[in-house]
Write a structure and sequence with these properties.
305 residues; alpha+beta; ATP12-like fold; 4-stranded antiparallel sheet; globular; ATP12_ATP_synth-F1-assembly; ATP synthase mitochondrial F1 complex assembly factor 2; ATP12_ATP_synth-F1-assembly_N; chaperone; transit peptide
Length: 305
């Protein structure tokens, strides 16, 4: 027995005959195939969460400039203002950071690879706030790395353990003194026991910074897997280069380039030379001299430091 049904697609109406078989199955006849194909395609579509994964694209601009005043700076690609993935104009409240972002775009040769433009990504995150996080949320995520901080885990091997103690212990002692703590390296894989008062002291320290710096701390901690090294670099206790090296100390120790006659490379035992940093550069970012901005021909007409 046949039943009459009507399916509508756009402005066209089609009569469809639906036949019910003895086994309860249904067959359809009389449906225009292009429409049926479209309906089946829509029914089979699975909705997946949308993620922002920008692909590399060709460089479309010639010149990169920084313009602004009153504490707000913008990066221009030719005559176009750089915008975030959500379409907001990239407005940076720090001249040094604006220079660093501009350099990331200026040194790009043939293709723009967003995954390699870390300070641009940091600026996008602060302005767009894709996860709708408050400053407190960002600090909380940063502190989650403290219990499993790289500097708190030591290897069993005598030689490597000696090297870790020599290079990491002075930084850990400085950190304990700064935050009136007594954090010690922990054996095993269960994480350190951080007292709540110490954790709250570090939380207040991080919350004293603005949202840009707080996100910078999180970026640094995620890269180094160490709250201690990130804060030490921000406070100029060590350079950003040395913080990066110390976070990879075990890998560097196992590297075939490690001299066989010494337990550590000369770089570690040599104190870093004093550096003069521009006062406009926030402490959470490398100095402009190490970024090479001064050597790159950017146009900064009418912009004061």
């Amino acid at each position: 027995m046949f039943n009459r049904r009507v399916l509508s697609s756009h402005r066209d109406v089609f009569d469809v005959e639906v036949k019910r078989g003895g086994d309860g199955s249904h067959t359809m006849r009389g449906l225009w195939w292009p429409v049926a194909h479209q309906l089946l395609k829509q029914a089979a579509t699975v909705t997946l969460p949308r993620r922002f994964l920008p692909e590399a694209r060709r460089r479309f601009y010639k010149n990169v400039t920084v313009a602004g005043n009153g504490g707000i700076y913008e990066v221009n690609l030719d005559l176009h203002k750089l915008k975030t993935p959500k379409g907001h104009t990239l407005q940076i409240p720090n001249y040094g950071l604006a220079l660093a972002v501009a350099q990331e775009w200026a040194v790009t040769k043939d293709k723009i690879v967003p995954s390699l433009m870390h300070l641009t990504g940091l600026s996008y995150t602060v302005i767009d706030n894709p996860n709708h996080e408050t400053k407190w949320d960002t600090v909380h995520k940063t502190l989650e790395y403290l219990d499993t901080d790289t500097l708190l885990f030591r290897e069993d091997g005598e030689e490597l353990n000696t090297l870790q103690a020599k290079e990491w212990d002075p930084i850990l002692e400085w950190f304990n003194k700064k935050f009136d703590a007594n954090i010690k390296p922990c054996p095993g894989l269960f994480g350190a026991d951080i007292p709540d008062p110490v954790r709250e002291t570090i939380r207040r320290y991080l919350l004293s910074y603005d949202v840009w710096a707080v996100n910078g701390f999180l970026y640094g901690v995620e890269a180094l897997k160490s709250v201690i090294l990130t804060i030490a670099a921000a406070e100029r206790k060590i350079t950003a280069e040395k913080a990066s090296f110390l976070s990879r100390l075990e890998l560097e120790y196992q590297s075939p380039d490690m001299p066989a006659t010494t337990t550590h490379p000369p770089y570690l035992s040599t104190p870093p030379p004093p550096q003069q940093h521009p006062t406009t550069v926030p402490s959470t970012f490398p100095p402009l001299t190490s970024l090479g901005v001064a050597d790159f021909p950017l146009g900064f007409g009418g912009v004061g430091a």
